[in-house]
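The authors assume throughout that readers already know how a fold can be written as discrete tokens. In essence, backbone conformation is discretised, so a fold becomes a row of integers matching the chain in length. A single example would do more here than another paragraph of explanation. For illustration, here is how one protein appears when written out as sequence plus structure tokens:

…
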Amino acid sequence: MVLNVGERIVESNDSGFDQTKATIHAGLMGSDSIIQVYNKGIRHILKNKRANQWVTEKTIVRATSNTRQVIVAYSGGEISYFELNNRVQLSETEKLPLDFEVLSINIGPIPDGRIRSKFLAIGFNDNTVKLFSLDPDSCL
């Protein structure tokens, strides 16, 4: 269920979300679009309610985002990194197999004056937390 919050809280029937899919993560992208991450893909919903879809055969189990970056974790221990490009489209820029199952994942907001957050934190099922670089020259 998607709600519009204003003077009153009402259910929205035109959010652009695919309500037949369970949402793993939802977030703002750029200044005027949103994403819906579900177990088989990412739905990027633009201001005009038009949606771009990215689908995968793998099963997404965790996701995080800020206004320009999205990271999804798959069952079995692998992540994909996406960035919003100049054409306001999400594009997959990196993929990394991991040795352990991802239990938690988080990216911080983008600092003022920058175009991306520098780090990604991941908690694994071996009781470790690791930080990964998101710098284009040494990503993941």
User: Anything to note?
Assistant: The mean pLDDT is 92. Residues 20-133 form a domain with the Methylamine Dehydrogenase; Chain H fold (CATH 2.130.10.10). The CA atoms of residues 67 and 112 lie 12 Å apart. The longest strand covers residues 90-97.
